[in-house]
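Appendix B. Chain record.
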Amino acid sequence: MKSIRSLCVFCGSRVGADPAYAAGAERLGRGLAERGVRLIYGGGSIGLMGVVMQSVLDHGGEVTGVIPEFLMRREVGNPALTELVVVDSMHERKQRMFELSDAFAVLPGGLGTLDETIEIITWQQLRLHAKPIGLLSIAGYWQVYEALIDRIVDQGFADAGIRDLFIVEEDVESLLGALADRAYAQAADSRRL
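Structure tokens predicted for this chain:
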């Protein structure tokens, strides 16, 4: 992942019902550390956020957390990270995470994860960025999202090209490889312009 130096991970503040979710988050954290890719994430120590963060740190990687002041206690902000950025609002959190990241990976999560995912994909649709976005569909978690996207297209609310705004993979290695490939292709395209 030479062209991706930092990866923003959106994921749940809970671990979810299936143990496969936490196992996938642990594998992603280890994969980032092994590749020398800095984790950018929401700054919490609970749920899948805590699992991926701890895995990166346990395997010698670097982590930057970005958390609003009001969530420091609720999500148990971790001051022992490589870097912890405390901001004033959720909007500022998302903007700062975007600025620090070369690409995005989405693990299972709840409404906050869905909000972050839709926003970053929408920003790409609006051509506000060209950073790769990948959904890690552990145990098929994101199949319903893919079905929703298909429904949006089928009902004429978007062109079929919106499906190309993000990658969906079922395992960590495939996701990291696909993100790196897309980053490389996008960099090559920008050099040709």
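Further analysis of this model is presented in Appendix C.
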